[in-house]
Design goal:
mainly alpha
Length: 260
């Protein structure tokens, strides 16, 4: 795994060196530069997914961070994109490796979605860099429309399930305004961790659930309902597995109570 990580970093640095050394009669034009950047971040995202799923969160974080730091200087012709990527790099610094990796992955996806070359201009022998091959989990979940439906369906069953105890034995009341706010927070959260356009504006997981004394059993019951709801909405099993791994990574921050 360390060899693969080193190879990825070498690939990034080699591309940067090639660009810097491209002096003389045939310098790289912006189109070619963009194509190489897209390939770099795409390969880093693929490798990082494998590393993260092996629970090597620190290595995944460093891979994403190193890739972004290497390609940012190559995006000087896209100041808005550079500003957004730097903002995510700064944001990730204050997070745990697992959470920070999601933010940095969002930056990689943003670069791909922003500058991916037109599929018609891509060589047919290299389909990996085509935008249709780099769709985010957010896209595969159905985007805002699909995720909103899943959230709506999930809350209907979660509120009624005593194993979940969503309203904490009646301590919390969900009126129309409260329900709308909860749905908004869930939508933003899913978007941010799956490569969507919406940014989470709420508290971190530990602060948001402080004092609720949510047990591991209640968390697992909610996760089971979420899995069932995704299946009923015809989400692919591979995408369900990917999303539930993300959800599972938040368990330590949410659970604080003991089973009755």
């Amino acid at each position: 795994m360390r060899t693969r990580l080193l190879s990825a970093v070498v690939l990034v640095l080699a591309c940067g060196a090639t660009v810097r050394a491209a002096e003389g009669p045939r310098p790289l034009d912006r189109t070619e530069l963009d194509r190489r950047v897209v390939r770099i971040v795409y390969e880093a995202a693929l490798l990082g997914t494998d590393v993260f799923n092996d629970k090597k969160h620190d290595e995944c974080y460093r891979l994403y961070q190193g890739t972004l730091l290497a390609v940012v200087p190559l995006l000087d012709h896209r100041p808005k994109l550079v500003a957004s990527v730097k903002d995510k790099l700064d944001k990730a610094k204050g997070m745990k490796a697992a959470e920070g990796a999601f933010v940095l992955r969002d930056a990689l996806d943003e670069i791909q979605n922003e500058i991916a070359p037109n599929p018609k201009s891509e060589p047919k022998t290299d389909p990996k860099v085509e935008p249709k091959k780099t769709t985010t989990l957010w896209d595969r979940l159905g985007g805002e429309t699909g995720v909103t439906k899943v959230i709506n369906d999930l809350l209907v069953v979660a509120i009624e399930d005593p194993k979940v105890n969503l309203l904490r034995d009646g301590k919390y009341k969900l009126d129309a305004k409260g329900t709308a706010h909860l749905k908004k927070m869930l939508l933003e959260m899913v978007s941010e961790v799956t490569g969507g356009p919406l940014k989470y504006s709420g508290k971190d997981m530990k602060s948001a659930h402080a004092g609720m004394k949510i047990t591991a059993e209640e968390f697992d019951a909610f996760a089971a309902l979420m899995t069932d709801t995704l299946k009923k909405n015809k989400v692919a099993q591979a995408d369900i597995d990917e999303l539930m791994k993300i959800v599972g990574a938040t368990k330590a921050s949410i659970v604080e109570g003991k089973a009755n």
